[in-house]
Specification:
By secondary structure, the protein is an alpha/beta fold. The protein has 1 helix and 8 strands. It has a domain at 51-131: Cupredoxins -  blue copper proteins (Immunoglobulin-like), CATH 2.60.40.420. Helices cover 15% and strands 33% of the residues. It has a 4-stranded mixed sheet, with no helix packed on it. The structure holds copper (II) ion.
């Protein structure tokens, strides 16, 4: 980097004075011990909620009927080569929106019931989620 000579000498002077201050001080500041941050152990204090995975593959939900308990998480994992959705036909309980290929979407049903759902992109894809 080019600096005008006046500025350069000013910089040098500044560095020199900084060094004087830093180097002449009798107090030796101990170098910070770079301790590797110990990763906090995630204890099993809170048991993770069960995840029920529905694979979307070959333009099908697998399994086509999934039964879960209320409060458990349901995950749709799209391993197909195109996007899909998981959209309850009642028009209100759940709608994943487009799940890109390779992506997944999670939903935790709170209310019990039997929910038919489809893929809005391929409405011939039909399946059922039973929450008990
Ligand atoms: Cu689809």
């Amino acid at each position: 980097m080019f600096l005008p000579s006046s500025l350069r000498s000013a910089t040098l002077l500044l560095s020199a004075s900084l060094c004087l201050i830093a180097c002449s001080g009798g107090t030796k500041s101990a170098p910070e011990q770079a301790k590797p941050a110990a990763a906090p152990q995630t204890s099993a204090a809170s048991t993770p909620a069960k995840v029920n995975t529905i694979m979307i593959s070959g333009f099908k939900y697998q399994p086509e009927t999934m039964t879960v308990n209320a409060g458990e998480t349901v995950e749709w994992k799209n391993v197909d080569i195109v996007p899909h959705t998981a959209t309850s036909t009642d028009g209100k309980t759940f709608d994943s929106g487009s799940i890109a290929k390779g992506a997944s979407w999670r939903f935790t049903p709170k209310e019990k019931g039997t929910f038919d759902y489809i893929c809005t992109l391929h409405p011939n894809m039909k399946a059922k989620l039973i929450v008990q």
